[in-house]
Specification:
The structure holds 2 protein chains of 2 kinds.
Chain A (H helix, E strand, L loop, with lengths): L3 H17 L6 E3 L5 E8 L2 E3 L2 E4 L5 E7 L4 E5 L4 E5 L4 E6 L5 E6 L12 E6 L1
Parallel strand pairs in A: 2-5, 4-10
Antiparallel strand pairs in A: 1-2, 2-3, 5-8, 6-7, 9-10
Chain B lengths: L4 H13 L6 E6 L16 H11 L7 E5 L9 H15 L6 E5 L2 H4 L5 H7 L4 E5 L2 E5 L12 H11 L7 E5 L18 H8 L4 E6 L6 E5 L2 E5 L32 E7 L10 E7 L7 H10 L4
Parallel strand pairs in B: 1-2, 2-3, 5-6, 6-7, 7-9
Antiparallel strand pairs in B: 1-10, 4-5, 8-9, 10-11
The chains are: A mainly beta, B alpha/beta.
């Protein structure tokens, strides 16, 4: 029974996570139970380039730079992060409004920097 | 300001500047991106060179040219970027004006924190006085992010402290100092703090580039004007959702939406209105020559 409980707990969490986040990329559950979405920044794109969140539900975004320093900026969700070259940053966000938002790299990273963005949909 | 106070103001300002306010005009140019050769614009520096010809043919010779950033297009090859800076200088030296001032854009300074730009053009933030107007160059690109930074804000506050509240001030910079379209990176993250400093003055005009189109905005008493590009245009952001895309190249009107701006200072106080008046002139592909040609352009800038 003791072995079944953690399994059930994890199963339920995964089911809940499916309701929280539409996964175009890799997601997992953090030790504190908050869903984590992994995002990679590499000139001149984010991967995945589209994620969906739920209003009022907290997630952690782990953003990793594979090459140079990038920015991760979205005014409506109060995201304003800098991702140093080769490093990973983690930001916790609880969207308080629905909509489709464009997140940009706001740290100049080269010729096509102006087109480096991703979409966050909050439902 | 009450009637009759203007002469006192300008006497005081003349002392502060060391110059008496007198009428003059100047030109704003922006975003030449020398070295850019991709779509949507296949013409390289042709629009920039056309702008030089148009300035040289103006009926009234401007006192100075302000260049509001993205003089060159970025490259990670330093030698290539050096060549682009030299090419920019070679073209801009053909402009028949006594003085040319610059600020960097992110394509000039974003990859090396402005090191190469400063080798060619000197400091990226500075101020000077000209005929009763105080000009301030603000750098909101060299920190790689769209921001001015606390050090420059402190310098700006100190720089302006010697002026009376009614002094005519022109700030020229690259990115907009307000949230024009943040998801297109048309903003400066600490622009509000710059506005707080400038809001202590009654006659402030901000000239900027970056957005490759003309735009007018007002923050309190502060007037903001964006200049057209000299390489390609972006569309009006109003009603456009999603990422920005340049206006497609029109081979029948190769310089459409590109242009120069003339700015006039009346040399006297204009209580309740902007101290400067601006006029945007679209570049034309026709080979107008001489004063008659320019007058034709001024009468019908959409030719």
């Amino acid at each position: 029974m003791s072995a079944v409980k953690p399994f059930l707990s994890r199963f339920v969490t995964i089911i809940c996570l499916g309701g929280l986040v539409t996964l175009n990329g890799v997601a997992r559950v953090h030790a504190d139970g908050i869903p984590v979405i992994e995002i990679t920044a590499k000139r001149f794109a984010f991967s995945p380039d589209n994620i969906s969140l739920k209003k009022g539900q907290t997630v952690k975004l782990r953003v990793h730079s594979e090459d140079v320093t990038h920015g991760f900026f979205l005014r409506p969700l109060k995201l304003d992060e800098e991702i140093p070259a080769g490093e990973t940053i983690e930001v916790t966000v609880t969207p308080d409004m629905v909509g489709t938002f464009t997140t940009i790299c706001d740290h100049f990273c080269g010729a096509n920097h102006g087109n480096m963005n991703m979409t966050i949909v909050v439902e | 300001m009450k009637a009759g106070e203007s002469s006192d103001l300008f006497s005081a300002l003349g002392r502060a500047n060391g110059e008496k306010p007198t009428p003059f005009s100047f030109v704003q140019l922006s975003d030449a991106h020398v070295g850019f050769n991709g779509p949507p614009d296949p013409l390289g520096t042709k629009a920039f060179e056309r702008a030089v010809d148009m300035i040289n043919a103006l009926p009234q010779r401007p006192d100075l040219v302000l260049f509001t950033g993205d003089l060159t297009h970025d490259t990670e090859d330093r030698d290539v970027h050096v060549q682009r800076m030299k090419q920019f200088q070679e073209i801009s030296r053909r402009i028949n004006v006594p003085m040319i001032k610059h600020v960097p854009g992110e394509h000039d300074a974003g990859l090396d924190s402005g090191a190469l730009y400063r080798e060619f053009f000197g400091d990226s933030s500075y101020s000077f006085d000209h005929r009763g107007v105080h000009f301030v160059a603000l750098d909101n690109v060299s920190r790689a992010k769209p921001e001015v930074g606390k050090e420059q804000l402190a310098w700006l506050t100190k720089d302006l402290a010697r002026f009376p509240k009614t002094a005519p001030i022109v700030v020229f910079t690259h990115r907009p100092l307000f949230d024009l379209r943040p998801d297109w990176e048309w903003f400066t993250s600490d622009g509000d703090e710059v506005m707080n400093v400038l809001s202590g003055y009654d006659n402030v005009t901000v000239l900027y580039g970056h957005i490759h189109r003309d735009d007018e905005h007002q923050t309190g008493a502060i007037h903001h004007y964006a200049a057209r590009s000299l390489v390609f245009a972006f569309p009006d952001p109003v009603g456009v959702s999603g990422p920005r895309k340049p206006v497609p190249f029109d081979k029948d009107h190769p310089f459409k939406n590109l242009g120069i701006r003339t700015v006039s200072f009346a040399g006297k106080a204009q209580p309740g209105s902007a101290a400067l008046s601006v006029e945007d002139i679209e570049l034309t592909a026709r080979e107008f020559r001489g004063i008659n040609g320019v007058q034709q352009i001024l009468r019908n800038p959409n030719v």
